[in-house]
Amino acid sequence: MLRLPRFGVVTPSTVDEVLALLSEHGKDARLLAGGTDLVPNLKHRIEEPKLLVSLVRLSQLAGIRCLDDGSLEIGGMSKLFDIATDEAVRRQAPALAAAAACVASPQIRNMATLGGNVLLDTRCRYINQTHFWRKSLGFCLKKDGTLCHVVAGGKKCVAAASSDTVPALMTLGAKVKLVSTEGSRELAVDALYKNDGIKHVVVRPDELLVSVIVPAQAKGHRGAYEKLRDRGAIDFPELGLAVRLDVQDDCVTDVDIAVTALQARPKRVTRVADLMVGKAASGAAFKDAAERVAERAFTQCHPMPNVPGDSDYRQEMVRVLCRRALFAAAGQN
């Protein structure tokens, strides 16, 4: 049996109370939303806070709102199940709905929140293990040790970003709203991450993610998400790829692709629009363009042996997932 460490728990009922606690306790406090990632990390002693600040009573942080400008504001405490099944999300941000739908299992999606998935800690085959297992290996750079077992002699943690929803949010141009006792700020999802497996988000310890804003998309917007995993449920991605495809009169007007489970920061595939914009969104022309985009994605994505799954196989699957996502977005499954 894996036991939890000792810590205090508080359940504030207002955002102001949460912010005051975060300001007072700083790095000694951790926010608890759905707990689907944090609780296992506590049991494995990957996280050892002195205080958990539960958000369970903050119902005002849940819910999906359609704003007057056509954008969506999704509360940080919104359940992934609700996002996956919401008609407005499925219509306006289909890649996000698809990504939320393939997180873990139905039971976990009914607990896990969007805020928790956006801020999901990086993962690695050498850190997401029991304390006993990690101790026998001499620990690692991310927690308690000085060695990287992925990159021999590495001085920087290469644990991988493993959120399914983030690549979709990147392609949608989404922003997060953060609040603290000092005020609020909005940050593009792209700017939320840095390439450091130990601390891969720029959110301060005293900040709370209250919502995610998905702007109105272009007319003819389409999207899709594809995920590589061993099992059809439970597993974190060995590779995840989101596509945004904008189409007008059967002609591609824009395309964007983002990938997760490569490194500490989710990656945008660059220079893909020039291969597809202006091409037909169906038929042989689209197939040819999709093949060239998939090849470009393959050359830019270099999986490391940091998560389960053979890294060479994962790179080969970049092509496959890219093609699948493009054809799914174009409605050519």
Q: Which secondary structure elements does this structure contain, and how are they paired or packed?
A:
Blueprint: E1 8-10, H1 15-25, E2 29-32, H2 38-43, E3 51-54, E4 64-66, E5 72-75, H3 80-85, H4 87-92, H5 94-101, H6 106-109, H7 114-118, H8 131-137, H9 165-171, E6 175-180, E7 183-188, E8 208-214, E9 221-228, E10 239-248, E11 251-260, E12 267-269, H10 273-276, H11 283-300, H12 311-329
Parallel strand pairs: 1-3, 2-3
Antiparallel strand pairs: 4-5, 5-8, 6-7, 6-8, 9-10, 10-11, 11-12
Helix pairs in contact: 5-9, 11-12
Beta fraction: 15-25%
Spatial arrangement of strands, main beta sheet: 4-5-8-6-7
Largest sheet composition:
5 strands, antiparallel
Helix- and strand-based class?
Answer: alpha+beta
- Helix-strand pattern: EHEHEEEHHHHHHHEEEEEEEHHH
**Uncertain segments:** none
Helical coverage, percent range: 25-40%
Q: Supply the number of helical segments.
A: 12
Our Rg estimate from Cα atoms comes to 20 Å
- Ends distance: 45 Å
Instruction: Report the strand count.
Output: 12
Approximate shape? globular
Average pLDDT, all residues: 97
